[in-house]
């Protein structure tokens, strides 16, 4: 199964880049019909995870994917699943 991976560790202090990269990877998955995105936000204080989840909860973004799964074994990543 093909998947895309986005690691936010390098840009976690740059809010504008986080949103840009999230938009880019969501659009790539939709255009290329890739069923899974792995977003690595890290464990830290949880602020980056909240930022990512708020982004994914926007109505215009939410309509593009099927569901979001939080990894029960690794709290530092989430999966975004698509039904194409």
Give structural attributes.
84 residues; four-stranded mixed β-sheet; single chain; globular; alpha+beta
Explained architecture:
The chain has 84 residues and is of the alpha+beta class. The protein has a single domain (3-81), classed as 2-Layer Sandwich (Ribosomal Protein S8, Chain: A, domain 1), CATH 3.30.1370.110. The protein has helices at 15-32, 47-56, 59-62, and strands at 3-7, 36-40, 67-70, 77-81. Strands 1-2-4-3 form a 4-stranded mixed sheet, covered by helices on one side. The longest helix is centred in the N-terminal third of the chain and has 18 residues, at 15-32. The two termini are 14 Å apart.
Q: What is the total number of structural domains? A: 1
Mean pLDDT: 91
Global structural class? alpha+beta
The 3D shape can be described as globular
Q: Which fold name is given in CATH as the topology?
A: Ribosomal Protein S8, Chain: A, domain 1
Secondary-structure element pattern, one letter each: EHEHHEE
Distance between the termini: 14 Å
Helical segment count: 3
Give the strand order of the largest sheet, numbering strands 1, 2, ... along the chain.
Answer: 1-2-4-3
The value of Rg in angstroms is 12 Å
Helix percentage: 25-40%
The first-level CATH class is given as: Alpha Beta
Short summary:
The chain is an alpha+beta fold and 84 residues long. The protein contains 3 helices and 4 strands.
List the helices and strands and how they pair.
Blueprint: E1 3-7, H1 15-32, E2 36-40, H2 47-56, H3 59-62, E3 67-70, E4 77-81
Parallel strand pairs: 1-2
Antiparallel strand pairs: 2-4, 3-4
């Amino acid at each position: 199964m093909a998947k895309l991976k986005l690691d936010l560790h390098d840009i976690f202090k740059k809010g504008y880049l986080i949103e840009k990269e999230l938009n880019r990877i969501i659009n790539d998955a939709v255009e290329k019909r890739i069923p899974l995105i792995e977003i690595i936000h890290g464990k830290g204080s949880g602020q980056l995870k909240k930022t990512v989840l708020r982004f994914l909860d926007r109505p215009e973004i939410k309509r593009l994917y099927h569901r979001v799964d939080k990894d029960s074994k690794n709290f530092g990543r989430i999966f975004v699943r698509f039904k194409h």
